[in-house]
Amino acid sequence: MDVSSASRNTHWAAQQDDNEQDRSGADDNHPRADAAPASRDQDRHNEPNEGAAQHGDPASAPVMQKQQTSNASARARPSRSTLSQISDGSPLTAQPAGASTVSSGTPVANANIPPTEPQHLLDRYEDVNDHPTDTDNANSEGALQADRMRGMPEDEVLFVKQINLINQQIDALPPTARARYRERLNDAIREYGETTSPEARQKIATALQDNVQKPVNAAYQKIMGDPAQRMQLEFTPPYGTGLLGAAGQNQADQLRRLGQQFNEAKTPGQREALFKQAASLRHQMQRDVQTAIANEQKTLTEQWAQADRELDQALSDAAGIAPTTVQ
User: Which tens digits make up the pLDDT trace of 79-111?
Assistant: First the structure.
């Protein structure tokens, strides 16, 4: 696909008329999120993760840089006996394998909750430092995917890592905006995968940044700045719940039920007890996701080490073979 065809196909790039409505983040009273509170994402974790966007504000970094092949990461491929164990995954996907969230419904917010109560609950039970944020886990998943892509063009690696962070923010939006931006993201990913032209890919990446990443980040930051909406996000499954299997599904269902009970509760004391329970459960899920990603990374590192040993052995064996002169 050349640049002109990429331009024709990226119909999502012109769809900006509804971005302002999405940025309000308050069109729907029950947004579902795979996001951690902005205060911890922004203040506690501001360092970049291996070239990915900075925590809490991925829109501050470009979706990708100009296409370049990473000679440092390129390698000769050893035997399939080892490489067959190293999954390259599906790098150009809007829903990373294992990292997709569990759809379990969202609670309808209780309009009678006093305005000071959400911040009190967040301060006491959410803004603590005993668990990774969803942005932490999205970055870790992106690094894992990048490690699976050793030797692939650097532009693809950066694209994949950025997709993880965009996904994490999209899932915090109201359902209508979430569906709209997910569709645009899928369109961009499909078009990106259909071309190898550096110019066309750069055009697609720029359009993605302008028409998905930036408005999604603006809407996300507005939601994270609203204690009432952040409070409701505590009852939704965290990023990476798909890695937890059936147990994760059960925990996501439990969060949904706690959210329903929370919004039906009549007293602040009842709500606080339910919120405390939900925060504890969600934090444990985030820690479990972190562990699952770390375990996958450990396995992948061992597989790459074995691949390196096989390659070194093959080179050693080849060095001992005398060249044959063809008569």
Answer: 444 334 443 334 444 444 444 445 434 556 777
Cα distance between residue 46 and residue 117, in whole Å: 28
Is residue 127 a part of any domain in this protein?
yes
User: Per the domain annotation, does 310 fall within a domain?
Assistant: no
Contact (CB, 8 A) for 79 and 211: no
Domain-embedded: residue 75: no
The per-residue pLDDT for range 54-82, each reduced to its tens digit, is 333 333 333 443 333 333 333 434 344 43
Q: Measured between alpha carbons, how far is 239 from 79 in angstroms, rounded to an integer?
A: 35
CA distance 296 to 307: 16
- Residue 231: give the domain boundaries: 3-65+83-305
CA dist 299 and 295 (Å) reads: 6
How many domains does the chain contain in total?
A: 1
Instruction: Assign 3-class secondary structure to 171-190.
Output: CCCCHHHHHHHHHHHHHHHH
Measured between alpha carbons, how far is 299 from 85 in angstroms, rounded to an integer? 10
pTM comes to 0.68
In the chain, what is the straight-line distance between the N-terminal and C-terminal CA atoms, in Å? 47
